[in-house]
Amino acid sequence: MQPVTLPLLIGFVVMALGSLVIYAHGDKRTEFLHHTQFHSVVPFIAATAYLAMALGIGRLELAGGETLFLARYADWAVTTPILLTGLILAGLHEHPRHSTFILPAVVLDVLMIVTGLLAAISENEAAKWIWFAWSSAAFLGVIYLLLGPVMTAAKALGGKMTQVYKANLTFLLVVWAIYPIEWALGPQGLGLFDAVVDAWLIVVMDITAKVIYGFVATARFKKLSLEDAERNPLPASRV
Questions:
Q1: Phi, then psi, of 229 in degrees rounded to 5
Q2: What angle do CA 145, 36, 114 make, to 5 degrees?
Q3: Which residue of 49, 117, 205, 221 has the fewest CB atoms within a 10 Å radius of its CB?
Q4: Which long-range contacts (CB under 8 A, 24 or more apart) does 197-204 make?
Q5: Is it true that domain 5-59+66-230 has CATH number 1.20.1070.10?
Q6: Could you report the per-residue pLDDT of 159-195, keeping only the tens digit for each?
């Protein structure tokens, strides 16, 4: 077994078990059930990606000798929009006009992942960092939407759901902010550590962003009353 396979197998097991635990622990009330479903399906998708990587599926050997796991980027391109959708829904108190913010956030998020992949596969050093910068710009766009208009709407609506949004947002942004730093320092970037260390770091970040965050986020919803989930009118000036 290759050294890089162990963290991938651990990632598969933890993600698979985490999916079950989050669903079992999550709120089953109709008003909050979709959040439980979001947060339980995310690690299940990640478990599928980790199993594929552990079995050697979707590995791309780059010119510099590094191994790129395409399944990892496929995982991120699917799971991060789900996490964003759940987060924004919480910020807007499940308001029916949520699509105003979800669509641009998801588009920017997917662009961030795709351009990150382009940076990883670029053989030209300048092109790599240009794509990395463009990916980072897309990430900043996501952050702007979450801290700007969505936060403004959440504060206008007020209540305990707003507090849940703020807490979940802080957790997720802190973890997500580590990813581009790790990428820049890792094998696809400056090469300060090898693929094995890279795999261990990413599995820890992924478990934190998907399993631990999912468990904590669903736990916060369980503390809310049904009245907290009521859809109060969203002021027109806030959308």
A1: -95, 0
A2: 45
A3: 205
A4: 199/4, 199/7, 199/8, 200/7, 202/7, 202/72, 203/7, 203/8, 203/10, 203/11, 203/14, 203/50
A5: yes
A6: 888 999 999 999 999 999 999 999 999 999 999 999 9
